[in-house]
Specification:
This protein is 38% helix and 24% strand. The protein is an alpha/beta fold. It folds into two domains: 60 residues, no CATH class; 155 residues, Metalloproteases ("zincins"), catalytic domain (Zincin-like). Strands 4-5-7-6 form a four-stranded mixed beta sheet, covered by helices on one side. Helix 3 crosses helix 4 and helix 4 packs across helix 6. The longest helix is centred in the middle third of the chain and has 27 residues. The chain is globular and about 65 Å long. This is YgjP-like metallopeptidase domain-containing protein. InterPro entries: UTP_pyrophosphatase-like, YgjP-like_metallopeptidase. Pfam families: YgjP-like (PF01863).
Length: 221
């Protein structure tokens, strides 16, 4: 596992280790930290890394195997919903009575079913993620940042400090609301502290004392 870690040296003060949703592992370290220290640090974190990778692998495998047929499970805001596919001239997706309903002209057209669901998920992401962002950004700054939805393979969110802008991954719409809030607070905190230094984590803890628990749930679900 340690051999597969991407090590990036930057002008930062602290070591930052992350396991991304695609199971890649990245360690960012200060320029002055010796190689032996990094090896020792990764050795201590080996069990944690393996645990995170395992959790992502358990969550993700079915994502590439969906056939978009009735009975399959799809996640939305932390809950799992069974899909019901209906033949219909009017094509749409709706969520009601505990099921995710997909209406489509040709029930055998897998690509069309996938596209309809992707459009529905994207629209819900734009609605709910902006709603959460607008509710909480004033707790961190009076200068309203820009917020955008952007597909990202390795991150749940990102922050452009210079442009006063944060980006959120639309896949977050599948996660519980408290996990989305954690990502929003995390990225907004970067507008005050660009790096993952002590001040950053102190401020994040002040704003959200249980952020570590939320982060763990984000990686588990």
């Amino acid at each position: 596992m340690i051999e597969n870690v991407e090590i990036i040296r930057k002008d930062i003060k602290n070591i930052y280790l992350v396991v991304n949703p695609d199971c890649s592992v990245v360690l960012k370290a200060p320029l002055s930290v010796p190689d032996e220290f990094i090896k020792s640090y990764l050795k201590k974190k080996e069990f944690w890394i393996e645990k995170q990778v395992k959790q992502f692998k358990e969550f993700q495998p079915n994502c590439t195997e969906k056939r978009y047929v009735s009975g399959e499970s799809f996640n939305y805001l932390g809950k799992s919903y069974r899909l019901k596919v209906h033949k219909s001239e009017e094509e749409k997706v709706s969520l009601y009575r505990g099921y995710l309903h997909l209406y489509i002209k040709n029930k055998e057209d897998v690509e069309r079913k996938k596209k309809l669901l992707d459009i529905w998920y994207r629209s819900k992401a734009e609605e709910k993620l902006f709603e959460i962002f607008n509710k909480h950004y004033t707790k961190i700054t009076d200068n309203k940042p820009q917020m955008a939805i952007r597909s990202m393979k390795r991150r749940w969110g990102s922050c452009d400090f210079e442009k006063n802008k944060i980006m959120l991954n639309p896949k977050l719409i599948e996660k519980p609301k408290y996990c989305i809030e954690y990502v929003v607070f995390h990225e907004l905190t970067h507008l005050k502290y660009p790096n993952h230094n002590k001040e950053f984590y102190n401020h994040l803890t002040y704003l959200m004392p249980d952020w570590e628990w939320r982060r763990e749930r984000l990686n588990e679900n």
